[in-house]
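Two proteins follow. First one:
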Amino acid sequence: MSYTATNGGGGKVSCSKAIGDSETLYLERYEDGRYSIRASGSPGVYLRLDGNAVAKEKKKIGPGAGVSTSGDASNAFESIKFPEVFLRSNGKIVNGQWGSESYEEFYIIYLD
């Protein structure tokens, strides 16, 4: 499996309190150990984190409210293109954050 970066992007990322088809994502692991996050109902559609503005500022943009605050069995999603920029959510907005703390950690739930 190979991966290809594309310019631009589109779509919408938001938060939901329910788990359904739109909230289910697939993690795809590549031979070099990297992962991509793919939409379940849209083949070939992947989560993209543009951390350009965050990486330039190199500062935290405020507290978030991720799924996990314990650090146990939780995962943080770091951008490959923008090191030290992590996916974060405050429960209403999904965006990028410089650095990773408990608010940038998520549990991965395996569904049958």
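Second one, unrelated to the first:
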Amino acid sequence: MLLALVAGITVTIVAWGILVLAAIDFGRDARAGTGESWVLMAGATLGAVACLFLAIIFAAKLQARVKSTGPRTAVEPETASPEPSSPPLDADDTATTEVDDEGLPLPQPAPYASRHSNTVVDDDHADTEDSPAAAYRGKRAKR
């Protein structure tokens, strides 16, 4: 199969070269005044394009075939990355979570980023006066 692809590439490249030279010759004749040479030049040009297209297709098939028959290498399995651990609790923080009727923990709201700084503000401290989020109350500025 590899030999057939190499032969196909060779034949189509040689045919492409011959058709390009023929198109050049027909183009010269057409400029000299022969009307039928325009048709022959167009045919040779389209044939050259088709040959080059086939050569590219054969080359892609050859490359895929060579890659698939290349030497096999052992692939190491990907190790699962460990889950990131949660940050340690401060002395005043507690690990209490609310549970539903079945005893499963309820999802906790995620902390949000303040509009006025790059720090993350959690909901417990968002309403204090020294918080950056406390400055913005959602009202429009008077004009």
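SUMMARY FIELD: The chain has a mean pLDDT of 76. Residues 2-68 form one domain.
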